[in-house]
Amino acid sequence: MNQKNCMVAQSGGPTVAINASLAGVIAGVAGSSVYHTIYGSLNGITGILNNDFINLTELMEKDADNLTRLAQTPAMYLGSCRYKLPNYLDDDSPYVFIFKQFADYNIEAFFYIGGNDSMDTVLKLSEYGKHIGSPVRIIGIPKTIDNDLCETDHTPGFGSAAKYIASSLLEIAHDTFIYAVKSVTIVEIMGRDAGWLTAASALARNSYNTAPHLIYLPEVPFDSEDFLLDVKRLLFERNNVIVAVSEGIRDASGNYISASEQSVDTFGHSQLSGAGKTLEFLVKEKLGVKVRSVEINVLQRCAAHLASKTDLDESFALGKKAVALSEEGVTASMVTLERVSNNPYEVSYGYAEIKHIANEARSIPLDWISPSRNDIEQPLIDYLAPLIVGEMPITYQNGLPVYMDVSHLSKH
Amino acid sequence: MNQKNCMVAQSGGPTVAINASLAGVIAGVAGSSVYHTIYGSLNGITGILNNDFINLTELMEKDADNLTRLAQTPAMYLGSCRYKLPNYLDDDSPYVFIFKQFADYNIEAFFYIGGNDSMDTVLKLSEYGKHIGSPVRIIGIPKTIDNDLCETDHTPGFGSAAKYIASSLLEIAHDTFIYAVKSVTIVEIMGRDAGWLTAASALARNSYNTAPHLIYLPEVPFDSEDFLLDVKRLLFERNNVIVAVSEGIRDASGNYISASEQSVDTFGHSQLSGAGKTLEFLVKEKLGVKVRSVEINVLQRCAAHLASKTDLDESFALGKKAVALSEEGVTASMVTLERVSNNPYEVSYGYAEIKHIANEARSIPLDWISPSRNDIEQPLIDYLAPLIVGEMPITYQNGLPVYMDVSHLSKH
């Protein structure tokens, strides 16, 4: 068989945009004069190890709507994994098997869509491929709601999560204003080490709404006494105080404000919960005011009905770009977004070497955070604002969004 | 002044439809040949006691889009209260003041939009009004996400909350399917005494998704051992088990499965939290499987961006109906919905005497719940399905929904 094929997989935590990137890869292959078939590996690279594939080219041919529907479907169509490849110098057996699969399926290029940890896999596969002189191009496509990948202006999945956070804060604000009694509402938002998503809550502020009134990010030390003073001061000026807080806030010694569920995942990340709850109890105990906490939880990363069109269009374009770059021979890289201008908002697509990216995390620049450590500065708002613009024309049936059939995952 | 005016207020917990009912009342008065001005009392009836009003007729004249925008705005435009009128035989002072305000403002009819507790206020005002021979018509307009008001087929606000729950369950399901490892996801849904909203999670089931796999409602005793057996059995058949549980589930003795935050509000209702968290810990301890809980929290009652068009149209129509009934002299009543047919779905608008409604709560009929107490029957699904149909054409600006300016509430 002289066909040149591609393979793609998804990995890490879900976003509402990762299937748009997958759709972009599929569209890129469909429009390519070089490639024939795109295979999807189920559950990240473990699908390659388990011989678990889907022929995505055939899947798209079944229904003309499938590509669009796929792009708008939340979570990962191909499933995910949190599998960390060993160092090939310690154990090269998975590598040998993976590259044999590449050979058997005539794979010219492999695309891995994921976050930091997935880029580590791209780095490792690239290094091994180079080591054995393999021609297979290995390209990473970014993904994360945390927006913390280096070398790219922002990441697919972030804009939609930010839109969800900002819309939810606005709706929570409306909900909070109805009672003419003093109250504090603490909203806990995802963000283990970077506060980008929590900062996006500021976009809810408008001509009649000043909430969130306080924003606490993991980039700066959190002080409980300062927090209580901030809240007390605001309660003099207004009835309802709304606080946005990142799940990853920590004190000056680096201890998370709450780590009640101290379990650790495969990559060594602490499983956090409870910063909002902890602050709720603190406010109740020290200030005695009516207080509630809202943990936005998983909904902020899978609410595809409120995806950002800017985000999904860019995610799709990045998938296509990865395919185009692989045709040019680019490898050991991640596709990237560069912001050409903000007003009007314009981006361009490029790539960066994977060694600069894997296992690095990008935090908010400190001068974008207020010196009082409880708010953000205008440059950060200007950075965030264009990313949430535009709504997806989701199809509804019987009152529910129409997403891709994921029987291949759900029936296990 | 010979003008005949009306007054309206909102009370209790918010929904995404209560402003649609308010808009319906305003539209009813605007189209009336009898009434001139509609005044809104801020923060429920406490606005009448504090002389805190808005001229809603003037407000609508300021901008042609205001009525539509109001109908689509979450929470309560007029603010809310949880104030319980005393028995007038014990203390008639608030009543004397309220009816004097009615006289001063030439109020012919007073509309109170709210749930069970608000209907108690309608009952009390009606009884006092009758006692003093007042001609003021007092009419209640139903509202609650719990769907537990008697005499009406369903309640405004419920359909939208149900749409949000069903859509979220579908999106959570997509999120859950991505890992090929055993896991349990417990979704805690609002519903202190009635399981209508939790039951709506079943609408997420479709051709590829069977979740939620288990549904636990407060109408039937919850047994922890049976629950664990249910989960264990399902984990043999599939990787990902998703459970929908009402916040108000209780054991055979009537004790809530969790009552960690045992505070009590003005009407004597326990403030519940933690059924989902309690079950998460139970599963972790007894089954040792990966488990997480999601408490949907306040978002299920204020996510106006995902409102049900069926719900909002009916809520608006009920507001108009209340005005029309007041012109006919109806008083001491609540407007109601009657389901004429299900296929096609059709309703009619009527009213019922308030004494049959106030302080009563309507639960799910037991034959609509599975004998195994962990699922619901087809008649309940058929009842729920039409209520979530249709989407509202929300206006977005800069990526966020455009709602009514609530400065009059938010600046306090």
Structure description:
The structure is a homodimer of 412-residue chains. Chain A is 35% helix and 18% strand. With 412 residues, chain A is α/β, with parallel strands linked by helices. Chain A folds into 2 domains: 5-157 and 304-360 and 390-409, 3-Layer(aba) Sandwich (Rossmann fold), CATH 3.40.50.450; 161-301, 3-Layer(aba) Sandwich (Rossmann fold). Chains A and B meet through helix 7, strand 9, helix 11, strand 13 and helix 14 of A and helix 7, strand 11, helix 11, strand 15 and helix 14 of B.
Record the SSE blueprint.
Two copies of one chain form a homodimer.
Chain A: E1 5-10, H1 18-30, E2 38-41, H2 46-50, E3 53-55, H3 56-62, H4 66-71, H5 93-104, E4 107-114, H6 116-131, E5 137-142, H7 158-176, E6 183-189, H8 196-199, E7 214-216, H9 224-237, E8 240-246, H10 275-287, E9 290-295, H11 299-302, H12 309-327, E10 333-342, E11 345-353, H13 378-384, E12 396-397, E13 400-401, H14 407-410
Descriptive labels:
four-stranded parallel beta sheet, 412 residues, homodimer, 18% strand, seven-stranded mixed beta sheet, Rossmann fold
